Each structure stands twice: as C-alpha cells, then as structure tokens.
Amino acid sequence: METILTINQLTKRYGSLTAVNNLSFTIKKGNVYGILGPNGSGKSTTLGMVLNVVNKTSGDFHWFDGSDSTHEALKKVGAIIEHPNFYPYMTASQNLALVCKIKGVPKNKIDEKLEIVGLLDRKDSKFKTFSLGMKQRLAIASALLNDPEILILDEPTNGLDPQGIHQIREIIRKIASMGTTILLASHLLDEVEKVCTHVVIIRKGIKLYSGRVDEMNASNGFFELKSNDLVKLQQILEEHPSIGKITVNEDLLTAILEEPMGADDLNSYLYQKGMILSYLVKRKESLEEQFLQLTNETAK
Ligand SMILES: Nc1ncnc2c1ncn2[C@@H]1O[C@H](COP(=O)(O)OP(=O)(O)OP(=O)(O)O)[C@@H](O)[C@H]1O
C-alpha cells in the first residue's frame, strides 16, 4: 500500500516542555487515521510540524515517497487546522472562487466540492449567514478544491451541535469512501471509533498505541474472582496457560485473559484443582476503559 506520510522520532520542545516526544508512525493511502489524545497531548503540534507551520526540534518526516520537498508535497495535501476564515459578505461560491485563484485550481471544481459537503443549494448564500457546522463544511469543501491525496482535520467537530457533528462525520466517511486518505486529530474516543480505521493514541506527546481501531478492542477480557484462599487461587491461576497478568486488591483477584476462555471452563478447572470460589465474573473493558487505562498509565 502506498505511503502518504512517514513520521520518524519527531520531537517538538517549547523551552522545558516537550510537546511531542519521539513520535513515529506512518500513514498509508486509503485509510482514515485519528490522532487521539487528551487536551494538550500534542496533536495540533504534530499536525503543525508535518504541515510546516511549526518548526520541529528533532526527528524527521516526509510526505509520499520523499522525493519532493515538503513545500512541493503539501500541494497535494488539504488541511484545516485553524478556524475557517472566509469573507463574511461574500457567498460560499465567491469565497471558494477566491481559494481557487490562490491555489491555481479551475473554478469548475467549486460545485463538485460544495455537493460533497451538502452546501450546493446554499452556494449563493453569504458566509455570514452560515451556522458553525456549515462554516466547517465550507472549510472542508475549500480544502478539497485541489483534489488532495490526504485531508487533514484538527478537531473537526469541536463546538458543533449533535446534528452538525453527525453531518461532519458523514462527510468524512463519504470523502474517505471516494479514496481520499484522512488524518484527523480528536480528543474524543467515540469520534475516532465511529470515523477512523486506524488510531495513534498520544499522551504528553508520547505515543501509547498505534494500530487498527478494531484491533484496539480485541482484548479477551478478564475475570474477577473471590475465594477464602487468594494465595492458593493465585498460584493455580498462574499455572493456567490462558491467564496473563494477575492482580489482587483486598479480597478481589483480577486475572487478565491472554486467550479466549469462558467463566464455566475456568470454574471447572479451578474446581478440579480443589479451589472453591465465592465470586466469579467475566468482564471485558470497553474501548473507553482501555483508552482511559492507556492514557492514565503514563500519568503515574
Ligand atoms: N506556541 C507554543 N508555545 C508554548 N507551548 C505550546 C505552544 N503550542 C503548544 N504548546 C504546548 O504544547 C503542548 C501540546 O499542545 P497541542 O496544542 O499540540 O495539544 P493538543 O493535543 O492539540 O491539545 P488541544 O486539543 O487542547 O489543542 C501543550 O502543553 C501546549 O500548552
């Protein structure tokens, strides 16, 4: 699969603060990537560096096969990283015509892109009459004018009402289905789950996880157990090949599964070993719990 962006140990320091710390990942054509992290985790700084608006401290990145300069490569990139800025008294069409002129793109692209974002019927309305969601959609149309290989969006649904959020997510899916690669930054796990195929989770500028969104939730779950002999219980569980990490908190033992196993199988295994349980529950973390776990771990 064709590579769109390669980031290698990219670092940005502001004085003593390391906003992005040795970050590496690659973006392949046709996927929808989310950079997911809490506020201040370095998402915007990362986007800023690859878009040449923030100077990196160290590390490197290159666009496509690396043969073009970043300046040249960015002509094939569409990005919205700040609030959309259009002329309030000009119509949607007139604003986009201006963008076409600046980008050197033919004006016949305007209607096509307005159609994608559902604004074709409002093409002659003045920008100042648009809702926040419509303004954001116009910004997306504007970023698409040069038929970019990749569309980059920083928190695309921030500040929008539920309907506006839904519309933007639908548009992102539509653009992705047309073959455009997408990279978006978000602090919302739910958004990444709904829209993205791949995710890079960062916290304090450090990458915690990168991979497919569906594989992120591929854990086998865990058991919670109680017994009047937790020491013996732990010893027996440690011998079981399907059980991974075991933790004991007061009278509750938690055993993480390395491979699938049902509660009934575990129960009969323990019974055969002479272990009687007073409590047994199988649980699986939601993606949200895993995300919170991941992002909290490095806080310690
Ligand atoms: N120009 C700057 N000067 C100093 N510190 C900065 C600057 N820009 C960003 N930072 C700091 O770098 C860290 C990362 O900020 P960044 O905006 O990249 O995070 P973010 O994940 O995009 O967060 P948010 O979602 O809140 O925008 C933060 O601690 C921020 O305060």
UniProtKB/TrEMBL annotation:
Entries under Gene3D superfamilies matching the protein: P-loop containing nucleotide triphosphate hydrolases (3.40.50.300)
Matches recorded under PANTHER family: ABC TRANSPORTER, ATP-BINDING PROTEIN
Pfam family, one: ABC_tran
UniProt-recorded Gene Ontology molecular function terms: ATP binding; ATP hydrolysis activity
Protein name: ABC-2 type transport system ATP-binding protein
Domain ABC transporter as annotated: residue spans: 5-229
Domain of life: Bacteria
Keyword match Translocase: no
InterPro entries named among the record's database cross-references: AAA+_ATPase (IPR003593), ABC_transporter-like_ATP-bd (IPR003439), ABC_transporter-like_CS (IPR017871), P-loop_NTPase (IPR027417)
Family indicated by similarity: Belongs to the ABC transporter superfamily.
Keywords: ATP-binding, Nucleotide-binding, Transport
The keyword RNA-binding is assigned to this record: no
